[in-house]
Amino acid sequence: THFGYKTVAEDDKVSLVANVFHSVAAKYDVMNDLMSFGIHRLWKRFTIDCSAVRSGQKVLDLAGGTGDLTALFSRRVGPTGKVVLADINASMLTVGRDKLRDQGLVDNIEYVQANAEALPFADNSFDIITIAFGLRNVTNKDAALASMFRVLKPGGRLLVLEFSKPQSELLNKAYDFYSFNLLPKMGQLVAGDADSYQYLAESIRMHPDQETLQQMMEQVGFAEVSYHNLTGGIVALHRGYKF
Ligand code: SAM
């Protein structure tokens, strides 16, 4: 089946995204390593470096899924800090919590099931917010960005790690072939689920490019917004501040 992603109504997108992540949760980490040849680990490390996180800080890892960023942050903020891993999907949260507990990371992590569009936190709560490969799954991205702005402390920063627009035509073509032909096949082979990986390819294609996302962040109030292309723009890291 084809998801017909561009034409589904908003409610349908919510349940579509829910089904995709319930379906991939158990195989999510191994698929990430396979699909990106392990490079997602470098993109995530770069995100942590750009966060300038310090011991004692309060971090929100939004759409945190299986908790890769949460694990890195948890070690950096130490016992006096806190990391909240928030995700809309219970299956992803469960896989994440089990994984982090197995790594002995327990004391400074909280798990919250929440929709990025309406965050259940007080204003000015977090020093740092990250959303990695999450924003493109959110139906109302402007509402989500505004909600992140609200819960960020003045002086705090938001980091958005997301697929973006490859900067060269050649890379763009190779990448399209990879994501629309090879990716669903790998999904079928490894996770027994081609549809979810077809959705992934389509959601990447639909996602706003570097400049558009920068403008969207500025429109909800973020200041000094800039971005850094990674792997030729296949992925970009956007950063903005709340002053
Ligand atoms: N951040 C993790 C990482 O980089 O490995 C997980 C990324 S995974 C591709 C996307 C996550 O976004 C899923 O866990 C999904 O449940 C979550 N998600 C989708 N829509 C969401 C929403 N509206 N609010 C919060 N989380 C959402």
Automatic annotation (TrEMBL):
GO function term, MF aspect, one: demethylmenaquinone methyltransferase activity
Coiled-coil annotated spans: none
Enzyme class, broadest EC rank: transferase
S-adenosyl-L-methionine keyword on record: yes
Keywords: Menaquinone biosynthesis, Methyltransferase, S-adenosyl-L-methionine, Transferase, Ubiquinone biosynthesis
Keyword Lipoprotein: no
EC number, UniProt record: 2.1.1.163, 2.1.1.201
Binding residues annotated for S-adenosyl-L-methionine, in chain numbering: 66, 87, 115-116
InterPro entries xref list: SAM-dependent_MTases_sf (IPR029063), UbiE/COQ5_MeTrFase (IPR004033), UbiE/COQ5_MeTrFase_CS (IPR023576)
Pathway(s): Cofactor biosynthesis; ubiquinone biosynthesis; Quinol/quinone metabolism; menaquinone biosynthesis; menaquinol from 1,4-dihydroxy-2-naphthoate: step 2/2
Catalytic activity: a 2-demethylmenaquinol + S-adenosyl-L-methionine = a menaquinol + S-adenosyl-L-homocysteine + H(+); a 2-methoxy-6-(all-trans-polyprenyl)benzene-1,4-diol + S-adenosyl-L-methionine = a 5-methoxy-2-methyl-3-(all-trans-polyprenyl)benzene-1,4-diol + S-adenosyl-L-homocysteine + H(+)
GO biological process: aerobic respiration; menaquinone biosynthetic process; methylation
Function as written in the Swiss-Prot or TrEMBL entry: Methyltransferase required for the conversion of demethylmenaquinol (DMKH2) to menaquinol (MKH2) and the conversion of 2-polyprenyl-6-methoxy-1,4-benzoquinol (DDMQH2) to 2-polyprenyl-3-methyl-6-methoxy-1,4-benzoquinol (DMQH2).
Similarity field: Belongs to the class I-like SAM-binding methyltransferase superfamily. MenG/UbiE family.
Name of the molecule in the record: Ubiquinone/menaquinone biosynthesis C-methyltransferase UbiE
